[in-house]
Amino acid sequence: MNAPWKPGLNAPRDPFHAFVCDDHSYDLLRVVTAEMGWAPEKVHKGGLRNAVQSLSISASPQILFVDMSESGDPLNDINSLAEVCEPGTVVIAAGQVNDVRLYRDLVASGIQDYLLKPFGADQLRDALTQAQAVFMAPRDAAPERPHVTVAVIGTRGGAGASTIATSMAWMLSEKKKRPTALLDLDVHFGTAALAMDLEPGRGLTDAIENPSRIDGLFIERAMVRASDTLAILSAEAPISQALMTDGGAFYQLLEEFRLAFECSVIDMPRSMLIQHPHLMSDVNVAVIATELTLAAARDTIRLLSWMKTNAPQAQVLVVANRVQAPTPEISRKDFEQSIERKIDVIIPYDQKLGAQAAKLGKTLAETAKGGKIGAAFATLTDLALGAAEDSTGDAAKTGKKKGDSLLGKISDLKSLIPARNKEKVPLGD
Question: Which residues carry this modification: 4-aspartylphosphate (predicted)?
Fold first, then answer.
């Protein structure tokens, strides 16, 4: 994941500030900074907490040196520092704790270097020179592989969109070895974290309530790690609490995901398409999860039409989920005829396997690996990656003929229901 401090921004700011705890470090830093052409008076007494207090009311420098010797909780204090640092600040820390785990955690949080006290002039000079080179270096080039954003949308409740979203996220992260973010936008009843036996945390609700706080550091702290390559952002907001948002927080989250991950999978409730249609503007692949039923056929047609108008850049994959043998409510052939396109993937129904996945706290794809369901998810993942990497031509190939009447197509669906099922699905006049 990207560090919260992203070198390369060129906003006007002081070249260097330092906050140190002891006289030896203070004197040495003044000498070396003067050699490098920086103002010695920018070296201050006081350590990390003094730096947080000072930078909360003043601009961050290009390079910041902080002494953590007096910090009782270095990682927590570094996170506090990150909240007041402007993006682009290169941070060097110093301390007396000689612990490789602390060093790794600090580097993972965005620190450029960690010097063990007492340090010498040459060591300090090398660290500052390297920090200066990092700050002046051009920003990272675009990744070789374009970011893949997959939105999974269910045609009906119970179609299994959440199961597909969690399984695709697991496949992308574990089988394809791509750093992946899973965003569950059902803030009250989402099951992404539950499916992997994780606590959802408050990350998503905090993002909705305070969208201005969303940045690389927020992503690092708020997301729940399912593995080294998979992180989840979800919520279990109180059902008595209505979370008001214009969708800006969701859009900002997806922007940060593009910087920090190679793939994003969004469990997208259907209502989000109505409330926040702009969330689909940068989606590469839209997976429509459906069952082979009359109502699902109707809503698949409606979703395909919506995608063609509102998200033409997205490649659309239709996945028939929970398909039961010997015959579903509507046959595959009739379903495909009604939506005027092929179903891309069929995922069989297996009640025992689904129950086992729930008990183990694993995704269905992981539990079913080696079987037919696992193979179906592997095919779906390959199709999604292939679709995302296709040219940005006519992506939303819904197969709908020009001039067709949506109302007429839905009416035609009545004839597709087998006679034995007609009484179960009242169609009205």
Answer: 67
